[in-house]
Design goal:
mainly alpha; disordered C terminus; 11 helices
Length: about 300
């Protein structure tokens, strides 16, 4: 039960943080896209700093959840962050949830429940050897790098989606490495954890992911980035968990079918909610009172 509470709490903080960050990032100069200047520019915006505070709280709660439960269990629960993002966006826009909104919420909740019930994730399997470990890490990181490399060839809306997909893949990998760090901390204490490379990789991936996410938020409305980010993270996290962490899922034909349908339901719900009129950039002007704003500038 503690894992569920921690994961849902993390999803709540992450969802609220993403909306606040995007509200600030859309006002940053487009010439800062994928440049470290973007983070320096955003650091002067109160709403962005508040969003970062929520995100840090979410990361801490998700790390606690990952320390107590399997990645394959926690990741689908983290995907509910879009529901909480939707709740804040609804307050900002004054748009009611409506039929499509409720459909998205139900699809996500149902998909998470079906995947967990059918898969029954456990951590009883053996950890992968170095070859398989680095193969899985290389595939996930390589896909993220490829998405970033080709993103600039598309217009801003499509670029935002590709950057968010890349960030989601990296965040899924980060979650798996966070689990490894937690295991080292539990087995050997803080000294053993600090002597390993995983905690530093978690920090590095977090910084790179932050730049990608803020660039995606800056480039286009939230509907073009948050669904991609929310869908890619659990898929990458589950792939890493099964690929090298030793997490196991039921593999009977019926269980596999139900797991696939559950994940498809989650992804569909994410897309439906991401395109709901309440999400910023859907034809409504969002406003946070008492927070400074500035004019948009065209990309250089």
């Amino acid at each position: 039960m503690a894992v569920f509470i921690l994961a849902i709490g993390a999803a709540c903080c992450l969802g609220l943080g993403f909306v606040l960050q995007q509200h600030a990032a859309q006002r940053a100069p487009k010439s800062d896209l994928l440049h470290w200047r973007l983070l320096l520019h955003l650091a002067r915006m109160p709403d962005w700093l508040l969003g970062i505070a929520f995100m840090i709280a979410g990361q801490v709660l998700s790390a606690l959840a990952l320390g107590q439960g399997e990645v394959a269990l926690v990741e689908p629960l983290l995907a509910t962050n879009l529901v909480f993002a939707m709740a804040l966006a609804r307050v900002l826009t004054g748009t009611s949830l409506g039929r499509s909104g409720w459909m998205g919420v139900v699809l996500i909740a149902l998909g998470v429940a079906v995947f967990i019930a059918a898969g029954q994730p456990t951590g009883d399997g053996a950890r992968a050897g170095p070859l398989r470990f680095w193969l899985v890490v290389g595939v996930v990181a390589g896909l993220a790098l490829a998405l970033v490399a080709i993103a600039h060839r598309f217009d801003l809306f499509e670029e935002a989606t590709l950057l968010a997909l890349a960030a989601g893949l990296l965040y899924g990998l980060q979650d798996a490495l966070t689990r490894m760090s937690a295991d080292r901390l539990e087995d050997g204490g803080i000294g053993e954890a600090l002597r390993s490379w995983q905690p530093y990789a978690v920090i590095a991936i977090g910084v790179v992911g932050l730049l990608l996410v803020q660039s995606a938020f800056e480039a286009a409305p939230l509907r073009m980035s948050l669904p991609a980010l929310t869908a890619a993270q659990p898929l990458a996290g589950i792939a890493c968990a099964v690929g090298f962490l030793g997490d196991t899922l039921r593999v009977t034909p019926a269980a596999i079918t139900a797991q696939v349908l559950g994940l498809l339901s989650v992804v569909t719900g994410v897309v439906v909610l991401g395109r709901h009129p309440a999400m910023p950039g859907q034809g409504h002007h969002t406003h946070l009172p008492h927070l400074p704003t500035s004019n948009h500038r065209n990309r250089a």
